[in-house]
Amino acid sequence: MLRWLGTLVILGLLALTWVLPGTSLGRRGTEAAARMEAAGAGPFVGQPMPPLALRDLEGEAIPWETLQGHRVLITLERSVDW
Amino acid sequence: MAATYRILCGALGLGMLLGGLAFFASFFQFQMPNSPGLGEPLPVGVNGIYFVAFTGCCLVAWGGCLLGAARDARAAPWIGTWTAVALVLNAVYRLMVWLVGDYHALGNLPRAEAAVFLLLALALLWTRPAKSAV
Questions:
Q1: Nearest-CA residue of chain A relative to B130?
Q2: Residue A11: inside a domain, yes or no?
Q3: In a mutagenesis test of the A interface, which of B5, B94, B99 is the best target, namely the one with the most A β-carbons within 10 Å?
Q4: Is A23 inside a domain boundary?
Q5: Does A17 sit within 8 Å of B111, measured CB to CB?
Q6: Does B38 score more than 60 pLDDT?
Q7: Whole domain around residue A40: which residue ranges?
Q8: Which DSSP symbol is given to A60?
Q9: How far is A31 from chain B (nearest CA, A)?
Q10: N or C: which end of chain B has fewer CB within 10 A?
C-alpha cells in the first residue's frame, strides 16, 4: 500500500517536471524578450507614478497622497508570494 | 530484483560516501590561509562551509548505510525506502529552485536532477526485496 502511494507521489512529481515548462508558472522567456516587454510597460520618466498600496515596517498603510511632492526611494525585496 | 537493489544501494552509497568525505575535507581546505574555499563552484561563507561539513558527515553515514544494504539487504530493508524519501525531497526543492529566478543561471539542470532523483527513488522503491524474502 505504502509502496503504491509512494509510487503515485513520485509519478506525480515526475509528471510535474515534464509539464512545468509548459505552464504559465514555469514559462520563462529570454532576457531579450523580457526587456522588450518591459520597454513598453511604463510608466516612463516624467509621467506620474500610478498609485501603489504601500505598507510601512509595522504593517500600517501609507496613504499615497502623503508621498506626492516628496522624493521617494522604493526598494523591492525578492520573496516568494505564498 | 534484489541484485538490482544491491547495485543501486552500492552505487549510491559509494557516491555519497566519497561526496561526504569531500565536503568534510572542504571545511579544512576553507580554513587554510588565503584559501578560496570552495570558491566559484560553491560560493559559501564561514557559516555556509560549517553546514557543508555537517552535510558531509551526514552523507558519510548515509553512504555507509547504503553500502551496508548493498552487502546485505536483510540487515536493514528500510534503508532503500528512506533513501527514496530523501531523494523525493531533493527533487521537490529542485523543482522549486527551477522556478525561482535566483537560480536562473542553472538553466534546466535542477529540473533534470529532480527527474533523475525521482527515477532513482522509484527504482529503489520497486527493487527493494519484499518482506517475505528478507
A1: A3
A2: yes
A3: B99
A4: yes
A5: yes
A6: no
A7: 2-67
A8: -
A9: 11
A10: N
Q: Under an 8 A CB cutoff, do A6 and B84 touch?
A: yes
CB proximity under 8 Å: A 16-75 to B: 16-18, 20-21, 25-26, 28
**What angle, rounded to 10 degrees, do the helices at B46-71 and B78-99 form?**
140
Helix boundaries (H) for A1-82? 2-19, 31-39
Asked whether the beta carbons of residue A26 and residue B119 sit closer than 8 angstroms, the reply is no
Determine the Cα–Cα distance for residues A34 and B101; give it in Å rounded to an integer: 13
| pLDDT of amino acid B39 | 52
Please indicate whether, in this complex, the C-beta atoms of B125 and A7 are within 8 angstroms of each other.
yes
* H helix count then E strand count, chain B: 4, 0
A59's CB contacts (< 8 A; 6+ apart) are none
The pLDDT value recorded for residue B94 is: 92
Q: Give per-residue pLDDT as tens, B66-103.
A: 999 899 887 777 898 899 999 999 999 999 888 877 78
Domains identified in chain A, total number:
1
Alpha-carbon distance A79 to A25, whole Å? 15
Q: What is the pLDDT of residue B47?
A: 86
Partner-chain contact B125 A13, CB within 8 Å:
no
